[in-house]
Amino acid sequence: MDSRPIGVYDSGFGGLSVWRELCRLLPHESIIYLGDGKNCPYGGRSREQITSFAMEAMERLVEEGVKMVVVGCNTATTAAIQALRSRWEDMPIVGLEPAVKPACLTTKRGRIAVLATAHSLQSDMFLSTTARYAEGVEVIKIVGEGFVDIVERGEEHSAKAYEAVRRVVEPLLSRGVDKIVLGCTHYPFLRELIERVVAGHGIDVIDSGEAVARRVKWLLSRYNIAADEDNRVEYRFISFADEGYRANLERRAKEILLNR
Ligand code: DGL
Hints:
By secondary structure, the protein is an alpha/beta fold. The chain has two domains: 6-95 and 209-259, Rossmann fold; 100-206, Rossmann fold (3-Layer(aba) Sandwich). The chain has helices at 16-25, 47-63, 74-87, 100-106, 118-122, 124-133, 147-152, 159-169, 191-198, 209-222, 243-258; strands at residues 6-10, 31-35, 68-71, 93-94, 111-116, 138-143, 179-182, 204-206, 235-239. α1 (16-25) crosses α11 and α2 packs across α3. The radius of gyration is 18 Å and the shape is globular. The two termini are 28 Å apart. Bound molecules: D-glutamic acid.
C-alpha cells in the first residue's frame, strides 16, 4: 500500500473546501496542500498565465513526492488540466468542474445558475459541459464578484461579505432558478450567506467537493495506491506566497477540522 501524500492545489484558500472533503472521506491519507497565494486571484487572468502557474504548482507537488494531484480549483482546471495531463502522463490528476450535470438532472423549474470566476464561465470546458447536459435547461452564468477576495482575507463572517453575496445572489430570486451551482472552490466558504439570501425560495446550493472526494477514492483503489489504515497521517501546507500566508492556510485548515 502507498503512504505517499495526495497533492491538492488551488490559487489560494479555496481548495481547502475540497481538502476538507478529502480528509472526511479518506481519513488514512496524508495530504500536501499547495495554496499559490502569490498569484491569487486567478479568475481574471489569461489561460496562458494560469497554465504557467499550474505547471509550477504541479512541479512543486511532484518534487514533494505526491502519488496523485487534485487541482482543487475550477479556474486552473479549465485553463490547464489538459496541459498537466499531457506533461505528467503517469500521474493521476483530478480536476474540478462545476456540478452542472447533477443540477440539470434534478432541476424542476428548468433553470439553474452557475456562480464561478469569469475565466471558468468563458472557458471551452464549461461551454462543452453545459452543451452536453443542459439541453432544455436555462443556465444563468454569474461571476461571484469579490467573493474570492473576501475568502482570501478571511472575512466570510463580515457584514461586507453578506452585502457582496446579497448583491450577486438576490437578483437570481426573480429569475426562477431552483439550483445554484458553486463553480469555484472559494465559494463554499460563503455557502451559509448564500443560503441565507435564498432562504424560503426552494433553491438548492450545490458544490463539487464531495463528488471529487469520491472520485479520488475510486482512483486510489483503481491504481492500487491507497494508504493503509494504520498510515501515520500528515497534513502539510505550502505556498508560493510568504510564510504568513502559509501559516494562515494551516491555521484555517485546523479550524476546519475542529469545526467538522
Ligand atoms: N478557487 C478557484 C476556483 O475554483 C479560483 C479563484 C481565483 O483565484 O480566482 O475557481
